[in-house]
Amino acid sequence: MNRTDLPVWLLDVDGVINAFPTIRQPGSWRRNQWTRFKVRGFHIQAARPVLDFIRKVHEEGLAEIRWHTTWQEKALDLGDVLGLPTFHIAAAPEFDDRPDNVPHLGYWWKAAAAYRVVDVEKRRLLWTDDDATELDDYDNRRIWAGGPGTAMVIAPDPSDGLVQTDLDRIQLFLTNNLATKEVSLP
């Protein structure tokens, strides 16, 4: 498979890998599946099955994974600390122009990068971001413009981050890349 045929996975950190547990929801990971890390003075709590899954997606060449986070260049250290490969940072020139990091203001720097994957690169998009539920109608239309199967956006509960049902949906989306272009949208 040509590299440009691979879907792009825009992977957020906080609320996706780094969970902020308050009360665990049904379907979350068991207590012994969590591990803690410290990166640049920040504490990260991640579920080992999520880290293993991300590593597997990379090793099996199912997607090109890019960090897409407010961490920006600081995310380059994450791979080493979390036991993951080094991933590139998603190009996001809008990050410096953002009025703040609130997506519901009608301007969200992360949505522009997602749109570029679908519209400019003409690649399938997997986007995991706990704030993706805040996409406005304009951003939604731009991201889904490629039609069914072009994109999958998963917005996990930040208390749990990605859970097994999310990983199952991601696996289906990535492995059905050639078999079908139809994927149920969130």
User: Strand order of the main beta sheet, please?
Assistant: 5-4-1-6-7
Mean pLDDT: 78
* Largest beta-sheet characterization: 5 strands, parallel
Number of helices: 5
Structural class: alpha/beta
Q: Topology of this protein?
A:
Layout: E1 8-11, E2 34-39, E3 42-47, H1 48-59, E4 64-67, H2 78-82, E5 88-89, H3 109-119, E6 125-128, H4 137-143, E7 151-154, H5 164-175
Parallel strand pairs: 1-4, 1-6, 4-5, 6-7
Antiparallel strand pairs: 2-3
What does this structure look like?
The chain has 186 residues and is of the alpha/beta class. The chain has a single domain (3-175), classed as Rossmann fold. Helices cover 25% and strands 16% of the residues. Helix 2 links the parallel strand 4 and strand 5 (88-89).
Question: Can you give me a brief rundown of this structure?
Answer:
With 186 residues, this protein is an alpha/beta fold. It has helices at 48-59, 78-82, 109-119, 137-143, 164-175, and strands spanning 8-11, 34-39, 42-47, 64-67, 88-89, 125-128, 151-154.
Keywords:
two-stranded antiparallel ribbon, alpha/beta, 186 residues, 5 helices, Rossmann fold
